[in-house]
Amino acid sequence: MKILKNTLKYGMILCIALFAACKKDEVEAENKNETPIDLADYYIIGRRPAQLSNGQTVQIPYIINFDEYGKASLLGEGNMPFTFKDGKIRIDGTMVFTVENNTITAYEDVIKRYPFTSYSLQKKPTKNQLNGNVYQGNWTNIAKTFSVFTFRPDTYDEKAGTTYPFSGNYTLIANIAARSNTPNAAADNYAEYNLVLIDGKLEVTCHKKNLVGAGSETFTYGVFTKVP
């Protein structure tokens, strides 16, 4: 009887060991089959708080673009070094994104400079999503509330009736956003535009200088819907 008990005991231990080994092999196989993503094919998009010229706080879109040279660029700012290791995207010691299964699960604003309220890792489209489209809608806090944006391969124009028409070149970002320093067609003034397609709409921030007199500045934001 004692021999039988020992046999059963060691048999159970062997079964448990074999089961654990099999599970370990399965996990290792899954890890080996999981291909690390190339961040140069992706971007991070979301929203952040911003204060307009009239003191109103709104949630504006931002985009972080990655290139193949280990640089990340936040819309409106310069290039910053980044690393992607052990499921963490670290950008210039200021931003840390935790990624699981190609999804951002957590974010740390290391120096409390980039208080993003949302974030999503997205794959870049293969072609320009702005080209050939027309968007119309309203600005938030300036008199010329209604505008129409028309895009071509690398140029666009904004028209608000006959007031302050702007046109010029834009720099495409991740095929989903653009940045432009645009001269005023009616005067020597200029405006800085950030244009982002997010949630199916074109959202634009615009920093205008000398629009209503020397030294004047206006920062505004608008949401524009695609015209069928």
Description:
This protein has a 9-stranded antiparallel β-sheet with strand order 12-11-10-9-17-16-15-14-13, with no helix packed on it. Strands 7-6-5-4-3-2-1-8 form an 8-stranded antiparallel β-sheet, with no helix packed on it. It is built from 1 helix and 17 strands. With 228 residues, it is mainly β. The model is unreliable at 4-8 and 27-34 (pLDDT under 50). The protein is 14% helix and 50% strand.
Overall outline: globular
Annotation field: number of helices: 1
SSE string, helices as H and strands as E: HEEEEEEEEEEEEEEEEE
Name the structural class. Answer: mainly beta
Strand percent estimate: over 45%
| Rg (CA only) | 26 Å
Biggest beta-sheet profile: 9 strands, antiparallel
Stretches where pLDDT is under 50 for at least 5 consecutive residues are 4-8, 27-34
Side by side, the strands of the main sheet go 12-11-10-9-17-16-15-14-13
The helical percent reads 10-25%
What's the structural blueprint in terms of helices and strands?
Layout: H1 2-33, E1 42-51, E2 57-66, E3 71-74, E4 79-85, E5 88-91, E6 95-100, E7 103-109, E8 120-123, E9 134-139, E10 146-151, E11 155-160, E12 163-169, E13 171-173, E14 177-183, E15 190-198, E16 201-209, E17 217-226
Antiparallel strand pairs: 1-2, 1-8, 2-3, 3-4, 4-5, 5-6, 6-7, 9-10, 9-17, 10-11, 11-12, 13-14, 14-15, 15-16, 16-17
